[in-house]
Amino acid sequence: MITNDVVAHLANLSRIALTPEEIEKLTGELGVILDAINKVQEVATADVPATSHPIPLVNVFRPDVIGDTLSAEEALSGAPEHDGSRFKVSAILGEEQ
User: Fold this and answer.
1) Local structure of residue 86 (DSSP, 8 states)
2) Average pLDDT, stretch 15-23?
3) Which residues contact 86 (CB under 8 A, 6 or more apart)?
4) pTM higher than 0.85, yes or no?
5) What family does the entry list (predicted)?
C-alpha cells in the first residue's frame, strides 16, 4: 500500500518539489501501477519462459555497402560556416572555443 508519506519521501529523495495536491494525485496513480504489477505477479509462473518480445524479430536493415561519397569540399559547400575542413558550430554547455 502506497501512502502520501511514501510519495512525499520518494519525492524528497528525488529532489522533486511536489504540492500536497500533486502528492495526493501521485499516490493514487502509483497505487494503480502497483496493483497492476501485483496482478501480473499473480499470473506469472515459473514454467513460463521470460520473453523480451512476443514475436521473433529480425534485423530489417540492409547490409552496409560502400558507395560514392562526398568530398570534404562538396559536403562543406552548403554549410553556413566552416573552417575549410570541418563544420563550424556554436559552443554548447559553456565550452570554450
Assistant:
1) S
2) 96
3) 76
4) no
5) Belongs to the GatC family.
Domains of the chain, start order: 4-43 (1.10.20)
Cα–Cα distance measured from residue 36 to residue 43, given in angstroms and rounded to the nearest whole number: 11
96: amino acid identity, one letter: E
Buried b (16+ CB within 10 A) or exposed e, 50-87: eeeeeeeeeeeeeeeeeeeeeeeeeebeeeeebeeeee
The three cell numbers of residue 12 are: 524528497
Reduced DSSP (H G I as helix, E B as strand, rest coil) percent helix, strand, coil of the chain, to 5: 40, 0, 60
Residue 4, C-alpha cell as written in the block: 502520501
* 68-95 pLDDT, tens digit each: 998 888 999 989 999 888 998 887 776 6
